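USER: My hope is that you can spare some time for a protein that puzzles me. I am handing you a single protein, as its sequence and its fold in token form. Walk me, if you will, through where the backbone shape changes along the chain. The protein I mean follows directly.
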Amino acid sequence: MKPEVLYGYRYWKWRVLAGFCVFYGVNYLGRFNFSLIQPQVIEDLGITAADTGFINSCMFWGFALGDLVHGRLGERFGYRRVVLAGALATAAFNVVASFGDDIASLAIPWAVVGFVNAATWAPGIGLIAQWWSRRERGRAMGWVLTAAGIALLLVWVVSPLVAAEWGWRAALRYPPLLIAVLGVGFWFVARDRPSDVGLPPYSEDDQVSRDAETAAQGRTHGFTAYLHLLSNWRFFVACQVKGLDNVVRYGIVSWAPVYYAQVGGFDLATMAWVTFAYPLGYLLAPLTGGSLSDLVFRSNRSIVVAIAGAASGVLMLCIAASPADHALLAAALLFLGGFSVNLSPVAALAVDLAGRRLAGTASGLLDAHGYVYGALQAWLFGLLAVGSADGWFWVFVAMALSRFVAVGAIWRVRT
């Protein structure tokens, strides 16, 4: 490349990545806020953990459906447009949900929140893929998932504190407005493709990416794109692994606050700082996993995914066997659990297998599987937790088993 072209690439790819990371760093204020205020909702409305599990499950189902749609819409109508629409709608429907006073009036808008918030993920990953090649994509995705870790830290602090001071409805009503503001900012900062700023598209320089790019030619329209991706057995396996990842990733988000409040006996403030260790571990993991896969294993993601699965499975068993009322031990295990489960670079693997033309669709399909599994855990673990005296023990054992199954599945992919 000419020096001015090389400079333009470096400037714009970092500008796009930084813009998306800043935006996504507040995104969970409108998606996982309900999980962290469940104890207040249960007390205020006189419902059960199984009821709030059902409400949370609706969000996961909504997000899964949105993932199937929005990645394709981003490729068709522009990534930035879809991300902006998702940001504005997320804030709006959080406000609607804040007026709910029974299961139905919370579950319906919360399902819509999931659907519209999905527009901020797959199109964003599709946009990143237009600027970052496979050899650097693990680290780029690591930065994106680090931003997701910051988002989880932020919601873990902000939502319980706002709920403790002004009530759970305020936690749904006001912090999500920041998503809309930064969504508008991202619209102005980013561009969808290098050609939008007069730069040529990059060329992939490895066989895996060249094969994916060649295979996608002529298969980027309508349902053909979905059939093409799902007929790739490696991609299909990666989707199931993503789902099994989410059984733990969002199982902890959904249930650790309730578990340590009910079984550990912690008040809202103590529960918040103990469980805050989980997003802190989450924050440190993705860039580590992406860098390992790029720099140590030469962009072979499967090895790091397997390491993450084995380590997090062991830690879930440790949580199941440890006393819930030991604050420091709980915080340590949650920190290590958050780090290990989020070390997995499976999101980068999906884009590698699909190629940049179908990066949005691939990210959406992968994440849709993740949220289907996430919806099932929110419902099933809620029932399991209240189904027997030792229900919480079996919740964490089930999480551990899901990790070991994921290790066995991903070991066949080796890409």
The two ends are 29 Å apart (CA to CA). The mean pLDDT is 87. Residues 134-166 form the longest helix (33 residues).
